[in-house]
Amino acid sequence: MLNEKLVPYVRPGLSAAKPYDARHHDFAWRHPELERLMSNESPLPPSEEVVEAARAALADANRYPDSGEDLRGAIAGFVGVDPSMIVLGNGSTEILDVAIRTFIGPGDEAVIHVPTYAFFETQVRIHGGSPILVPMTDDFRFDPPALAGAVNERTKLICLCSPNNPTGNSWTVEELSTVLRAGVPTIVDQAYLECGYSPSFASLVLEYPNLIVTRTLSKAFGLAALRLGYGIADAGLVDVFLRIRIPFSISLIALRAGMAALADPDALEERRRYISSERAWIEDRLAAMPDITALPSDGNFVLIDVSRSGRKAAEVVAAAQAEGVLLRAMTAHRLEGNYVRVTVGTHEQNEHFLRVFDRSLRADTPASSRVAPAPA
Ligand SMILES: *Cc1c(COP(=O)(O)O)cnc(C)c1O
Fold this sequence. Notes:
The chain is an alpha/beta fold. The protein contains 13 helices and 13 strands. The strands form 3 sheets. The protein has a 7-stranded mixed β-sheet with strand order 2-8-7-6-5-3-4, with helices on both faces. The protein has a 4-stranded antiparallel β-sheet with strand order 9-10-13-12. Strand 6 (186-189), helix 8 (204-207) and strand 7 (211-216) form a beta-alpha-beta unit. The protein is globular. The mean pLDDT is 94.
């Protein structure tokens, strides 16, 4: 509870603002014996070259890092745009925060399709804006006309995600272009782009200066703990973002590891292939199970509707956890009903998941858990 003498000083709304809930991560770190298939991490650790680059940077830990111009250049080459169109961030989350702060203040509106990544909504609220939540269609298609219909003179930002967490589907260039033509600043979060073969929207930034694409080294690249992401935007907008961003927000360790990761495009392709083939295998196996529906995914995760099994999502998650597998019940992303999300792990982890999941759909699975239930 905030000390009441401080209440008049804290900006209105902030002390009551609901933060992004990261308790499931803390829970997983306290229980290393459980398979972490709950937060869309890569099951593949970084390569020896990347680890070595990070380790070498530790020897210079008494110095401030440089501003990452070499990494910015390497990412620009990887993406295929000019370095002036790249802004680095402490995870792509920092770019999302900077972009939201750039456009959203008290009284402003941000149009967001739901279900999606919860951070958009929490951050818009924290900066005093109102999230306008536009549902996807009943069969989880994006709904560009509904999004366009939600735009008014207070709208300062549109937030989209492709591939979308948690539904797994992607925007097409045609669908996205109809949204971009409205001219409203539009973020497309492409955190999962390299986990599959869905379209990149980086080149559309040249045509639409209102488009901001965010990407990360946390997912397919497998560097979530290092916190390294970036935005791709019009050079003038990048210049504004650079004024707002915290200087030195990226550690030397992350900068050096990022350079090593980008120097090995074959390793990324191998990761993309591994994740994609494991995902396809999980999808095939799930398709053969009665009483559930798995949505086709371009990400490193699969969303599963368990409602026809008669089990609640929370029951399935608890039963899987009792057998050593962490999954996520999807109430967190404004998804009504009984949906469970599983992250694509190693082949062994995926096999373990499929065995456990099949049992968890039946009411006779043990209700007792080896550990206290994870927070929702
Ligand atoms: C995991 C995730 C992120 C987090 O990215 P960082 O680069 O690690 O900050 C961003 N967006 C979505 C949709 C995610 O699921």
